[in-house]
Write a structure and sequence with these properties.
Layout: H1 2-47, H2 52-62, E1 70-73, E2 81-85, E3 91-96, E4 100-105, E5 111-117, E6 120-133, H3 137-151, H4 167-173, H5 175-178, E7 181-191, E8 197-205, E9 208-220, E10 235-246, H6 250-262, E11 265-266, H7 268-281, H8 292-304, H9 309-322, E12 324-329, E13 335-339, E14 351-353, E15 367-370
Parallel strand pairs: 13-15
Antiparallel strand pairs: 1-15, 2-3, 3-11, 4-5, 5-6, 6-10, 7-8, 8-9, 9-10, 12-13, 12-14
Helix pairs in contact: 6-8
């Protein structure tokens, strides 16, 4: 009997022990669960998105102020000028340092100057006092052989070709001589004052799409000008000017090319020698009488008065293609290139993004802006 009682007591003790363990286990599990919840809640607080005020402050800190802005001058705004004089002293003019200059004394009456940037051959300035123009290739080859036999002078395979005595005909048909293809008139800017029109046009030069000014005075000459001519189809191209730069940067270089033109000076000795040559040739033609600065003023005035819709569109297209935008400095009036998105990371008021269609696209860019 005693053994039964002891056994029952032991069984009851074990039951209580097991129950106690089970209850303790439930408390520990409950405690562990609450701790994990607390940790998760704390983590969520740390990683949660900041308030609107916090977001604004963080964004402002990421953007740049005026103090962070750096401006690097573009090539057209950092030019060092030098004066070039031809070997015989006939002509001088200002050219940017590093540009190549070539000249050709055709027959004193015709005097030809070319200056270009060897790093960007599409940047080019060309001026020729006067030269005759022929209506087609066959006519030129006939005249070429006659000048070789009569004067011992060979002007080469190509020369000016002008089926009509107009400036547009001259430039449309003389690409072989001038060194371009695909000539296309954008706009006729009007009379140049010495017998022709000023054309704003594009062409392809050295594989580069360029834009520029093309002008000349073109007039018919009577057959008496030269007794070796087969007929009276000879034209005179007088005061021929070509000023070009790659399309995407022409507005930047227009002022540079204009300065080169305005600085062009011919010596008194040149004009004396030229007059003597004209008398020798017994010509009755009226040759170039305008000074280069007066000619350049006319050209620049016409350029400034042009319809600039084409240029605005062209410059915008170039910016989109090259991945850049233009920024206006409200304090200095300067215009800068910047990488696309530059304005998104700037929070000041001084530098403003130039909007689509703005006439500021016709102004030269003088620097590149960055942080």
């Amino acid at each position: 009997m005693k053994k039964r009682i002891i056994a029952m007591l032991l069984a009851m003790g074990m039951s209580f022990a097991i129950a106690g363990c089970g209850e303790h286990k439930k408390i520990e599990e409950g405690t562990s669960s609450n701790t994990e919840a607390d940790d998760t809640e704390e983590y969520q607080k740390i990683t949660a998105a900041p308030t609107t005020q916090e977001t604004t402050e963080a964004t402002t800190e990421e953007k740049n102020s005026d103090a962070d802005v750096k401006v690097t001058p573009t090539e057209n705004a950092s030019i060092k000028w030098t004066t070039y004089t031809t070997p015989e002293g006939y002509m001088t003019f200002d050219v940017p340092e590093g540009w190549q200059v070539e000249y050709y004394n055709i027959d004193i009456i015709g005097y030809q100057i070319t200056a270009y940037d060897p790093d960007s051959p599409g940047r080019r300035f060309y001026f020729c006092t006067a030269v005759t123009s022929y209506p087609n290739y066959e006519e030129w080859q006939w005249w070429r052989q006659n000048t070789i036999s009569t004067f011992g002078i060979d002007y080469g395979e190509y020369w000016y070709f002008s089926p009509e005595a107009t400036v547009q005909s001259l430039f449309e048909n003389s690409g072989d001589y001038f060194g371009y293809t695909d000539f296309n008139v954008i706009e006729n800017l009007g009379d140049n004052g010495w017998g022709g029109d000023i054309l704003q046009a594009t062409c392809v030069m050295d594989g580069v799409n360029v834009e520029g000014i093309f002008t000349s005075g073109v007039l018919d000459l009577p057959i008496e000008v030269n007794p070796v001519l087969a007929d009276g189809l000879l034209d005179l191209a007088d005061g021929t000017v070509i000023m070009t730069a790659p399309e995407e940067e022409y507005t930047n270089w227009e002022g540079v090319l204009g300065r080169m033109f305005a600085s062009l000076t011919f010596s008194d000795q040149y004009w004396d020698d030229r007059a003597a040559m004209q008398r020798q040739m017994r010509t009755t033609a009226t040759y170039l009488s305008y000074q280069a600065d007066a000619m350049s003023d006319m050209i620049m005035s016409s350029w400034e008065a042009r319809n600039n819709t084409y240029d605005i569109t062209s410059q915008q297209y170039s910016d989109a293609t090259l991945g850049r935008e233009r920024i206006y400095d409200t304090e200095t009036g300067d215009i800068y290139y910047a990488e696309n998105g530059w304005s998104d990371n700037y929070y000041g008021d001084r530098y403003q993004l130039i909007e689509t269609g703005s006439p500021l696209y016709n102004e030269p860019v003088t620097g590149t802006i960055s942080y």
